[in-house]
Design brief:
This protein has 5 helices and 12 strands.
Length: about 200
């Protein structure tokens, strides 16, 4: 299984949920240029996960964690709880280094150019079906970048494979920048990377 973020993982969680805005993806880029770490977190509303598991007899977050573990031994996978904006979320995270010998991980390695950093967001949407779009109407994809990796950033853009860009909000929280956009842009193949620039 290639770790170009599989739509199977996303749909596995979302199809079993009944409300929108109950799921988010966070993409963290941190440490330093010599040893960049990447962490993906899938956050799902705890109440919705419980409802789903009770109705199906399954373990949706456990299944997502198993899919992360199937990627490679170089990825550290964890399951935990987290509070965000006053809501309780169940979280599955996968952390790895872009210096890993696993070539799939190198697909996520940030590119550094003068006064900018380009963060790839590969997504295998070969199984994506637009009929599922309603599940993600209010869901977000956020990229969190350590300020040390691009100290002078003041703007953020999404980048498509055809070179088109779209400006998005860039926030600062502690030692990180946060660039956020609707997850449907990514699911529909309209975001190949996020660019932070001066």
């Amino acid at each position: 299984m290639s770790f170009q973020f599989s739509s199977r993982i996303i749909i596995l969680i979302a199809v079993m949920m009944f409300l929108t805005s109950c799921m988010e993806v966070e993409h963290h880029v941190y440490e330093n240029k010599n040893d960049i770490k990447i962490r993906f977190e899938i956050l799902a509303n705890h109440s919705m996960v419980q409802m789903s598991d009770n109705q199906t007899g399954g373990d949706v977050m456990g299944d997502a964690a198993d899919q992360f573990r199937a990627v490679d031994k170089g990825m550290v996978v964890k399951e935990y709880k987290r509070e965000k904006n006053g809501e309780a979320y169940d979280v599955v995270s996968g952390t790895f280094s872009t210096n890993s010998k696993n070539k799939d991980f190198s697909d996520y390695a940030p590119l550094f150019e003068k006064d900018k950093i380009i963060i790839p967001t590969p997504f295998d949407n070969s199984e994506w079906n637009d009929d599922n779009s309603y599940l993600f109407t209010n869901s977000t994809y956020s990229v969190h970048v350590a300020k040390a990796l691009c100290p002078t950033a003041s703007a953020a853009y999404t980048l498509r494979h055809n070179g088109q860009i779209r400006e998005i909000d860039l926030k600062v929280k502690g030692d990180s920048y946060i660039a956020e956009f609707p997850i449907l842009w990514w699911l529909n193949g309209n975001v190949d990377a996020v660019v932070l620039t001066k």
